[in-house]
Amino acid sequence: MATKSTKTKQEPKGPAPYRHQDLILVRTAHPTIIARTWTNNMEQWAKGVPLPQYHAREQHLASTAFSSNGRLVSWVLVPKPGADVTDEYKAWTASATTAAEGVRGAFDPQDGSEANQERIMSAVETYERPGMVAVTAAAAEADTDSRDVVKDVSTIAVASVYAPSKYRNHGYGKLMMKLLWDEIEKMDNIAFTFLYSDLGSQFYGNIGWTARTSTEIVIPVGMILPSISATSDSDDNHNTGSSNKRTTRAVASASADAIVLDAVTSHDTLQALLDRDTQLLREALKQRVLSQNQTGSTATTTFVAVTPEIHCFQWLQARAWYNATHIWKFDPAQIQEGLHYGVRRVTNSNTSDQFILWHHDFTDDQLYILRWRVDSTQSKAEADAISLVLIDAAQKEAKKWKLSKIVYWNPDPALAKLLSLEPKDRNHNSIPSLGLVNSLTETQNVEWIMNEKYSCNSSPVIGSLDIT
């Protein structure tokens, strides 16, 4: 649920309720307080979804493994003990008869009353996610904590930044994010933190999350692909038979053999695929470091990546399932049989080096490519043939679910060239922004590898309209 950013300074709706020095950022596990943060951000992100369904979806997602065991933390910016509103605000709301008309007093973390809920000036969520860091020899010398070529690390993904509209334009959003950065720096063994900004490239950069260059290609569902024939299926629904397989022939000089795709339907299949994907990512990071070291370069480059772990994909699948079932109300049989993670190529060796994983974004009418990999091919022509078959499968998937386009962030350059699509800069919304935690490395010496859609762990991109 993307939101619009604004660069125009808006006037506040009255005096600031609290001074900055009277506000603190606290974790909350109180179900009523958390539910209130959902109610607050509905004004921007619900897009017509009724409150009961909106809350039910958030509860459904909070129950997934991705959000469990302390990985998801809800934070609220609230008045500290003993604090009260400013005299200006108190005078401005002197005639208030309810907390909604005029908030008062300090926040009590154990109080679920309406008056206490009104004391939430803004809120944010964080997810702990696995990542990888690889440093060049020069960077390793500069950072005594860098010992191995590729290290498995913990990261913090930031999501759902939101301030109620009536509390905006008092600097509360910026204050909250500064306090959150301080909290992240206190956490154990967090290597980097990242988010996707809807507030331009500077807002979060001034705090610690530096914007990164990002591109995308958009593939219309009706786009005619180059050099690809009709599939062996007579209709647009693939992988609906008992075998969950389909055969496609691509007209490419290097590949006259049938390319067989298998739907990724089970957790076991997805896990095996992602295990292999992670292994290949680790090897790629190592190779980048070794190649730079062998040149004798003195550049202090740090390469980072978000590990493509199964819980993230399951979370996104749970979101798509809920939306398809309870909001868009697709046929239950179609959901049961056809809402898959993606497709992979089946070979004699049964490797998982060629696949596409996707997410059905029903709200914004698009099929996101979460992960794309076309490796271990004998030639460019073979890679092109496999790529066309995978995109053909994505087009049929989008058409089956009445989605108009396929969106691919930071696309494989070979695929973009094959499709004659020029990647466009994503500089208006969902801008990837990243910062190393407790590191002396300059931001320009950090490279974010494989920054595809799977790294953005929530469909509502973070940021609200002018939370400053």
UniProtKB/TrEMBL annotation:
One Pfam family linked to the record: GNAT_LYC1-like
Signal peptide limits: none
Ranges for domain LYC1 C-terminal: 266-455
InterPro entries from the UniProt entry: Acyl_CoA_acyltransferase, GNAT_LYC1-like, LAT
Gene3D superfamilies named in the record: 3.40.630.30
Superkingdom field: Eukaryota
Xref: PANTHER family: LYSINE ACETYLTRANSFERASE, N-ACETYLTRANSFERASE DOMAIN-CONTAINING PROTEIN
This protein's name: LYC1 C-terminal domain-containing protein
